[in-house]
Amino acid sequence: IHGDFRTILNDTLDNSVDLIFTDPPYDRESIPLYGSMAEHAKRILKPGGSLLCYTGHYAVPEVSQLISDHLRYWWIVACKHTGASARLPGKWVFVGWKPILWFVKEGRRDNEYIADLVESTPVDKSNHDWEQSLKEASYYIEHLTDVGDMVLDPFCGSGTTCVAATRLSRKSIGIDINPDHIQTATSRIHDELQPSK
Asked: Where does the chain show beta strands of DSSP type E?
């Protein structure tokens, strides 16, 4: 769906989404979007549903507080990079992993053990400059939802979350404010639904 999730999600039914898995922008100006997303998530997630979102290391305290105003903090997942580590000037750190913050509505839906470390696979970024691997999306969708459940990505970019959900026979909604991203995501999902040749 092309548009601003803050408007579009007003029409989403209460308690209708099983998992939100998303990668919002990391720039400082976008940090308030995490709070807006969590406010919607509190209403639309089913009890026991999860919100998992990537964020920049620098923003973890602020983003965590914004989301904690609406949902219950559960854990931090480490998404380990398998390519070369980036250098972060100013902090003087070799960055070898990326945080994924995990929040729940009320509590976890089950007691299944889930890994808090996932090794990503390199992505060629041809679909989107900030495209993430299918590996982590697939892992958490598989373990935090059932076949037929609803997965939401309010910052869908190139559609990685929706592609992973489709492969796992889940329903999904992807929203992005950029029409080019929506076109790319729609094309990827369409290709995923084509019978194998």
From this structure: 17-22, 45-54, 72-80, 86-88, 93-95, 97-104, 117-119, 150-153, 171-174
